[in-house]
UniProtKB/TrEMBL annotation:
The keyword Signal applies. It holds the Pfam family Glyco_hydro_30. GO terms for cellular component: membrane. It comes from Dictyobacter kobayashii. The gene is srfJ. Residues 429-489 form the Glycosyl hydrolase family 30 beta sandwich domain. GO terms for molecular function: glucosylceramidase activity. This is Glucosylceramidase.
Length: 637
């Protein structure tokens, strides 16, 4: 070894000591000067509370602070690294009755206060989704004040297939002014439109009540929607989405309605409405169905038709029949289509102030892929008026707020505060993020806003106070929620630890590029995994297990064993035969920009593939880059 002149007389031993000391010095400095690798606890959590009796409503509470470590007992785990649907908003319908009340029965100052309370996120609850009837609904003032109407009414026996008489003049009196005021307060509002009936001359009944759409009127009805969208746009009111028919499986007695079976709506969308919108350059979304959770076969029919599906953004749902998990059932069948809940009325039948039902609706809808949570009438008087007052027209409905027709005074109902627990804090474009369901009556749902802030809404449906811990990465806080109360927690910062981005604790399916499901085989337990199953049964269901260090394992429901890339060599096919989780059973869950995920094997660093040569060869982990066969769509069972 050659030493430069100044060092020739320095012993090698002395030099070694000097170098070692220097290294130690820099190491000590680095330890104390570099950023800590463990995320520091201490983020502030803001809290707002509404009690079941509404004596406390959206009231700020004492701030909380995250602490390091985990909590025991009833734990709600929030994982911001796992995102689901992006939210469109929360709201109700400014029906003809609602707009008529606000515009005609309130003073200018009263109306201004109410509108800010509804639509401002600072002085109110920031509602940002409106589902507007296209023409009359049952929540329309009775004749002779208003009565049933469409945008192209004709004398009995006359038709207008060219829509020469189309006009939204009725709406310009008070509906459009109210909508413009709302949009001025909150420019983020999304408006969707839904008809209770086409003009009577288009129908077999010759009336806005009952009947079906005449086959000769399909083209005119598609143009009717186009003219509606264009007329509202000309008023400065863009229409975000429409549905072809409100409650197509229910023909009401005494107010506008129409039977529109699934096959007929499918044909209308694919042959008339979709092509008309495309031809006219209209980008308004088309949502199918718009009825109850108890008939998921209806949206299946629309989305199962490739042409109709190409024009359809997803499904609109109501709450009056079935259970909310129907939304997930349809989502799992069509994971690339979205979900909206568009009507769920409050009323005297609830035997409450509306708060419990609104909270359960909000949490259940969002946890089942809903992009919107929508009550029914925005404003009614305390007696459920005005409405058409005929037949089945709802006389027991409750508005989100009640307005006294004599004084203009406002009562803010439980529906208002229930929506506000989310709408005031969840910004448009926020993502629903993963949170574990609480126990002992605690229900919850979590969001991540575009600015990175997190929002957790928790509701105690139990009859006694309940305590729980909120776990976020490696941090937690504790809270006790009174019986019947809801709290919203909001905080900033970045999650550290405890989050792989995968749906930990959930049972999922995986779907490959060929449209088939990943299966652990239905004939015997240890055959290789492949993508050949056309439906989800036990062998296509996998529990997502937290393997630590940001990794996951997949446990087959059918045999209880773990998916493995094999412990003997790297390129053997995947199977479900391992009884414990080691390196070959650990995977990195990698969300892709198109909503799919990829799985990277921890043992060899390669990606799980359904093969690029043919459909049904076994899955293996030997591909070094992510392409089509290494991407999987997924959904919860």
């Amino acid at each position: 070894m050659y030493w430069s002149t100044p060092l020739r007389n320095v012993s090698v031993r002395s030099l070694h000591v000097s170098v070692i000391c220097t290294i130690l010095l820099f190491s000590v400095v680095a330890i104390f000067s570099s950023p800590p690798q463990v995320h520091a606890a201490g983020e502030t959590v803001n809290v707002w509370l509404t009690t079941g009796d509404l004596s406390t409503h959206l009231a700020p509470q004492a701030n909380l602070t995250f602490g390091n470590g985990g909590g025991g007992g009833n734990v709600i785990t929030v994982n911001e690294n796992q995102t689901y649907q992006q939210m469109d908003g929360f709201g109700a319908s400014f029906t003809d009755s609602s707009a008529w009340l606000v515009y005609n029965k309130m003073s200018g100052s009263q109306r201004s206060t109410l509108m800010n309370s509804l639509f401002s996120s600072t002085s109110g609850i920031g509602l940002d989704f409106l589902r507007q009837p296209i023409g009359a609904s049952d929540l329309t003032p009775p004749a002779p004040t208003v009565g049933e109407y469409s945008y192209d009414d004709m004398p009995a026996g006359q038709t207008d297939p060219s829509l020469t008489h189309f006009s939204i003049n009725h709406d310009t009196a008070y509906i459009i002014p109210v909508l413009k005021q709302a949009l001025q307060i909150n420019p983020s509002i999304k408006i969707m439109g839904t008809p209770w009936s086409p003009p009577g001359w288009m129908k077999s009944s010759g009336s806005m009540e009952g009947g079906t759409l005449n086959s000769s009127a399909y083209s005119a009805y598609a143009n009717y929607f186009a003219k509606y969208v264009q007329a509202y746009q000309a008023q400065g009111l863009p229409i975000y989405a429409i549905t072809p028919q409100n409650e197509p499986l229910y023909v009401p007695n005494g107010y506008p309605g129409m039977s529109f079976p699934a096959a007929d709506e499918t044909n209308f969308i694919k042959n008339n409405l979709g092509p008309t919108f495309a031809q006219d350059g209209i980008t308004t979304k088309i949502l199918g169905y718009d009825h109850n959770w108890d008939q998921p076969g209806y949206p299946d029919t629309i989305l199962g038709d490739s042409t109709a599906s190409s024009y359809t953004a997803g499904t609109a749902w109501h709450c009056y029949g079935g259970t909310v998990d129907a939304q997930t059932t349809v989502h799992n069948s069509f994971p690339n289509k979205d979900t909206w809940e568009t009507e769920c009325s409050g009323g005297t039948w609830e035997n409450s102030n509306g708060f419990p039902n609104t909270m359960s609706l909000l949490i259940g809808v969002v946890r089942n892929w809903g992009k919107s949570v929508v009550r029914w009438g925005m404003v009614l008087d305390p007696n459920g008026q005005p409405n058409l007052g005929t037949g089945a027209a709802c006389s027991t409905c409750r508005g989100v707020v009640s307005v006294d027709q004599n004084s203009g005074n406002v009562t803010y109902n439980g529906d208002y505060y229930g929506l506000g627990q989310a709408s005031k804090f969840v910004a448009p474009g926020a993502y629903h993020i993963d949170s574990s369901a609480g126990n002992n009556g605690i229900q919850d749902v979590a969001f991540k806003n575009p600015d990175g802030s997190k929002v957790l809404v928790a509701y105690n449906s139990a009859s006694s106070s309940q305590s729980f811990n909120v776990q976020w990465g490696g941090e937690n806080f504790a809270y006790t929620l009174p019986a019947g109360a809801a709290a919203t927690f909001k905080w900033s910062g970045t999650q550290a630890g405890g989050g792989s981005g995968a749906p930990i604790g959930k049972t999922i399916w995986l779907n490959a590029t060929n449209g088939n499901y990943v299966s652990a085989r239905i004939d015997q337990s240890n055959n290789p995994l492949n993508a050949s199953a056309t439906q989800v049964q036990a062998w296509e269901e996998f529990d997502v297990i937290d393997a630590g260090n940001g990794l996951i394992a997949l446990k087959s429901h059918a045999n209880g064993d773990y998916v493995s890339t094999r412990i003997d060599q790297s390129n053997n096919p995947l199977d479900a035969s391992a009884t414990q989780v080691q390196a070959w059973e650990e995977f990195t869950w990698l969300p892709q920009s198109d909503g799919t995920i990829a799985l990277q094997a921890q043992a060899n660093g390669d990606y799980v593939s359904a093969r690029t040569d043919q459909n049904n060869t076994p899955l293996e982990a030997m591909v070094t880059q992510i392409q089509g066969w290494e991407k999987f769509t997924w959904g919860q069972v």
